[in-house]
Structures are given as C-alpha cells and as structure tokens.
Amino acid sequence: NSRTMSQGAAPKARAEPFWKNLVAGGIAGVTEILIMYPLDVVKTRAQLQVGKGQSMFTQLIDMVKNDGFKMYRGIVPPILVEAPKRAVKFAANQAYQPIFTGKDGKLSRLGASGAGVSAGITEAFLVVPFELVKIRLQAKENQGLYRNTMDCVMKIARAEGPLAFFNGLESTLWRHALWNGGYFGLIPSVRAALPAPTTDGQKMAVNFIAGALAGTFGTILNTPADVVKSRIQNQRKDVPRKYNWALPSLQVIAREEGMGALYKGFLPKVLRLGPGGGILLVVFEVVSK
C-alpha cells in the first residue's frame, strides 16, 4: 500500500526560517502557558513534597481559595523564555534531522527520536535559569522569601552567585532529551496509523491527536527527571544539599519515598503537556504555512 509506505517513515520537514519558528513557538507556547499555568504550580508543589501529599483537585481548590491571583507567581520567566524555547525546539529538531536521515533520504522513527533528543539537549541549555527562578517562586515554602521575579533573581545572584542559575542543568538535560525524543519520535508513527487527511480540518485533527499522544508519551518518559530537577533547583545555598545529580537523586527518592514518588505531579503535568503537545503541533503547522 503506497499511502502506508509513504506515511511509514517520518516526513523530512523543510527547514523553516528561525523567525517563523520564533513566532509559531511563541504563539503556541504563551497561549498554552496562560491557560495551563495553575496546573504547572500544582505539579511543582507536588514534586517538592516529601511524603504523601494532597490530591491534585484539593491542591487546586486550596490554591484558588488561598492564593487567588498570587497563584500566577513565577509566570514571568516561562513567558519570557517560551518563544525562544519553542523556536529552538523546532528549529534544532529540523537542523538535526539531516544527521539522522538514512542513505535513502528518509528519516526513520529512530532517526526522528534521535533528532528530538538532540533538540531537547539544545533547548535545555536555554531554559535552566528561567526554570530555576520559576521553581523558587512556585514553591509554597518560599512564599515570604521573594517579592516578585526580579527580587528573586537579585536575591539568588547575591546570596548564591551567578552560577546558581545553572543548578539542575544535568537533570534538565535528561528531562528535555527524554520529552523531545519521545515527542518527535512518536509523531510520525501516530500520523502513519491515522487515516490520511484530505481537508485542512482533518489535517489539524490528525496533528492534534499525534501531538497530544506524543506529548503524553514524552511526559511518561520524563516525569522522574522532572521530579529530581524540581528538588535540585529548589535547594538554596544556605540549606544542606540532599540532591545533586539526577541518577543518585532518583535512587534517594525511590528508597525514601517509594517508586511512586518518581511520578509525583504526573496528573497535572500530563493534563497540561498532553493537550499542550497537540496545541503545539497544530499552531506550529498552521503558522509555518
């Protein structure tokens, strides 16, 4: 069947100019953040909690009741980095694809994953400082510590030095490599399994389903690395360091809190990044036109 054959390999994406990636990534990313940010706060707080925590719904209700608009604390760093992050994600993925393309000129599923992992590693270097500031502002125990984003940046720089903004770089590399590898690796398989779209509406639906399933798969792969990253980045200099490197930290959490603790915050994370992966792909494809 020629259609199945043509859909079986990941399509070679034509390289878009960087400004298009920047606009597409920015619109997709900022839209998703504005809608889904409270879920991100719930996820971070669940990940930072040692021992048994509240359910996602209890936490959300508590947050709306007690924090009101303060639950949007920490939204500035992700908004600032969102457009460049998403642009780098897609531009780097397209730039790495030729390296992983076979002699027949086709990008295999494994090649699509390899390009995704490489794009994730590239993206991670960009986001680390923004992620660290966001985590510090989201953490419940830091509420009296930082007035706002700028105050947080200044206090970290003064008390911990400029290199502190790169704490958690290694676990962030794991987090982004795993998510992007899963995301870009699965999209071609889902597209191949679905009926070929004949209209623009059907094409959007296929992209949303492929992006959402791939976003969910990426989240299943990277949640343990994300839990570790949150804990590493929330450690201030004046507190004894319990978590340093990703793999030993995973062992500490599993030993002390059980294997399930490696998936703390999974529900709010997947509720955000599942549909978020769909929105990302749809908006990216539409704006890329």
Structure description:
This protein is mostly helical and 289 residues long. The protein is 73% helix and 0% strand. The protein contains ten helices and no strands. 47% of the residues are buried.
Biggest sheet architecture: none
Q: Can you tell me the overall shape?
A: globular
SSE pattern, N- to C-terminal: HHHHHHHHHH
Helix content: over 70%
- The whole-number mean of residue pLDDT values reads 85
SS element count, helices: 10
Structural class: mainly alpha
How many beta-strand segments? 0
What percentage of amino acids are in beta strands? Answer: under 5%
Structure in a nutshell:
The chain has 289 residues and is an all-alpha fold.
Topology:
Layout: H1 2-8, H2 18-48, H3 56-66, H4 76-100, H5 109-138, H6 149-160, H7 169-193, H8 200-233, H9 246-257, H10 266-288
Helix pairs in contact: 1-7, 2-3, 2-4, 2-10, 4-5, 5-7, 7-8, 8-9, 8-10
